[in-house]
């Protein structure tokens, strides 16, 4: 996962920050936070469905 995707997922998804709060931390606009979060979740869902995420832990 790209670092920007990871960062926004951690802040919005895990830490439950608002888009405004995450934007302040990352130095991004709220719109960029929302778009990047949407893309990151989409990518994560695809990776999980293909099994790539779990395979990276198993080796």
Secondary-structure element sequence?
HHHH
| Helix/sheet category | mainly alpha
Runs in which pLDDT lies below 50 for 5 or more consecutive residues are none
Distance between the amino and carboxyl termini: 16 Å
Tally of strands: 0
Radius of gyration: 12 Å
Report a brief summary of the structure:
The protein is mainly α and 59 residues long.
3D structure, described in words:
This protein is mainly α and 59 residues long. It is 81% helix and 0% strand. It contains four helices and no strands. The mean pLDDT is 89.
List the helices and strands and how they pair.
Elements: H1 3-14, H2 19-26, H3 30-50, H4 52-58
Helix pairs in contact: 1-3, 2-3
Descriptive labels:
59 residues; mainly alpha; 0% strand
């Amino acid at each position: 996962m790209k670092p920007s995707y990871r960062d926004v997922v951690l802040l919005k998804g895990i830490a439950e920050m608002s888009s405004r709060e995450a934007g302040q931390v990352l130095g991004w606009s709220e719109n960029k936070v929302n778009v990047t979060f949407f893309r990151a979740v989409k990518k994560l869902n695809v990776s999980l469905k293909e099994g790539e995420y779990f395979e990276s832990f198993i080796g």
